[in-house]
Structure formats: C-alpha cells, structure tokens
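Q: Convert this sequence to structure tokens.
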Amino acid sequence: MAQQVVMPKQGNSVESCIIVEWKVKVGDAVSSGDVLCSAETDKSTIDVESTADGVLLARLFEEGDDVPVMVPIAVVGEKGEQVELEQPVEVQPEPQQVADTVVAPQPVVAVHVPDAHGASPRAKHLSEKLGVPLSQVSPSGPKGRIIERDVRALEGQPLSPLAKEQALAQGLVVPKSGSGIGGRVLASDLKQVKAPVVQSAPMGAEETNDIPVKGIRKVTARRMMESMHSTCQLTLHAYADARALKRLRAGFKASKPELGLAGITINDLVLFAVSRTLVQFPVFNAHFLGDVIRRFGHVHLGVATDTAKGLLVPVVRNSDLLSLRQLSEQTKAMIAKCKDGTVQPDELSGSTFTVSNVGSFGIEAFTPVLNVPEVAILGVGAITLKPVADGEDEVSFIEHIGLSLTMDHQAVDGADAARFLRALMDNIASIDLLLAL
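A:
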C-alpha cells in the first residue's frame, strides 16, 4: 500500500523547508532511511529520509518549492501501484486522469512536465486566479522555472473580471492597486500602464549571471528588512582597553595542555564579559514584543557565525552560568556545527542578546543590525592602537578593542545604552578581575 513521506518537523521555530535537490527519481527503488532529497530551512540544510520501503511513485513538489513542515512531499509504494494525488503535480509520460485521480503508467516514471510557459502547475493556476500574466513574472525556480512564490510576489489588489481577461489575453502589466473601490484594478488601469521595453543586448555586451535569492540568504534578507522596518535602531561606538585581554590570551596560549585553556580566544573573553555585564543590566537581556518587554532570568548569547551558506546565529544557553572554559568550548562546538551543516534548528533560536565579531577582518567599528526581537546587539571590532593622555604632556598608544552597540530605542533609552556600554568597557579592561568573581 502506498505511503506518503512528509517534510519532517525541524524544531519548534521552523515552519517550512525549501527542497534543494531530489536525490532519487520517480521509479527508483527506495528503502526506509534512504535520503530522498535535501532541504534547506531558514537556518540549516537537512536530509529528508524515506519512511517506507518500495518504489518512489510520485514527487509532490519540485526543487525550489517552499514546503510547510508535516506536508507530504512524496509517495512510496509498490511498482505500478495507482497513486491518488490531492494536489497538482506534473507527470511524465502522459497520465490517465479521472476526476482528481492520477493513474500512473507502468512503470511509474518522473513526475515532471514543463508547460508552455516554463512554469509549475501551481504557478500557472495562481497566475490565472490573480490575473497576473506569466510573461511579467521573474522566475526563481530551478533552471529558470517560474514557481508559485514568483507569481505571489506580484500579487496586489483584486482585478475586475474584464481586467483579468485583458491582462491574461494581452500580457498587460497589472498595477498593485487600481482606481476601483478599495484599490480594485479595472481594465482602464491596465491601459494606463505601459509594459516594460525589453531591449536586446548589444554585440559584445558583458555576460551576467542571475542568482536566485533563496534559502538562508532569502530568509536573512527578509529578517534584516523586517528588523529595520519594525525597530528604532540607534548605535553607540566606543573602545575598551584591550591590554588585559591580550595578556590573558597570551597566558592561556602558553598554558599546559592538560589545563585545556590554550584554545580560549579574545572573542571568548569578550563573550564572558558580555554575559556578566548583561546580568548587571537585565534591561538589555530582553525581547521587545510591542506591548510587552520580556526580560530573561539567564543570558542566552547568540553568536553571529559566517558560513558558506550565509549568516547563522547559534545560541550558547545560560552563558552567565558557564565558566570561561565552558563558554569557550560550547561556543566553538556550536560554530563547528554551523559550518558543517549539522546544527539543529532549536540550537539557532531563543537568543536573548547577540554578539557579532568582525575584528579578524580589520574592521574597527560598524553598525550591527538588531536580531529581532532582541533589545540590543553588540558588534566587536579589531584591536588597534589608540592615543591616550598620560599625564599633562604625555601621550601613550594603548591597544583598544572596538565596540558597537545597536539598541532598539523603543525598548531602552540612549542613556541606558551608554551606561551598559561603559560598564562593558570597564569589565573588558579588567577582565582578569571579572574572572575572579
């Protein structure tokens, strides 16, 4: 009996996954535990395994489709078994269709037929429903294919029946809003909008490469835009005396291997100072939720991590309760998981404050973007020499580390941010004393 394979749930924060690549074709034999496809959440890449033995009878989604969790993505059963598909899918070769039932020919083969527009059936159906001509849609699916979300991106106010008919028949550009009641798009609105003129590239023009924005990059782009539009961000810049940091780092590096301290970095020391400073200023260890500011009893540090697939922020939970060595070990373990793609979605959610360190690139100061709904984020820059007055007429050059604090002015005031940053500067300058507390 045919069985459905569903997109597995990935923690509590993941609502959907994008199918990156199918590993098997329709008609291939599969066993329980075999990888059917790879999928990308907004945080990591996963392998989706078969939960049944048999033959892959149908693939219900294409590469590039964004699939909600716990929704069927494939059907596995006996060779030649009839498959009833509850949603539009593409079947090749020609299937026999009776009502909503698709009877797959023997043997069952690939579920894929490009239509005349190079669009998936769901995209074509949505195009007809909304009155958006496929000729106006920019594709982002595999091999330049138009998928449902491409059409959805052009969705605006509803069209009148005549406007929809003319738009689809003549390929006219549909404005987001029209002159009808409630912004309804009328046929007269279509005539007022000129279709874009596509000019052929001149001989010898430079070649371009259009890369679809999807997966982690698409989610990061959306979240950054949401962060900027939903918060009132203000950034304060300062520099902290880094001599104690450098001194401790050198001592740890030269320590006996059995102590396990040689791997402690400058960043680990900064994370330790941040975790202790947040205990002193609980207003910054919080989420701004609009009508409520939620403060947390412990510090769950988010550590911005650069990976080959994009920016990830693993969470080191209860950082305020960890020793420096424990904090260092857990941070490195989480970063390693991000880089090799084994980090779990729940390990990438729940941070109460984020630290982003770009000091290794030689950047002294920058403006980090809030990781909403957090109240603040700290940017850490490079260690550089800064002139400091030493007596009335003397100037000494002392190593300082750059600190950039971005806070949400809806939740905290500038003076609060200044006090927090001042305390952090002092804690970093005297990190050796802070370790003794």
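The longest strand covers residues 376-390.
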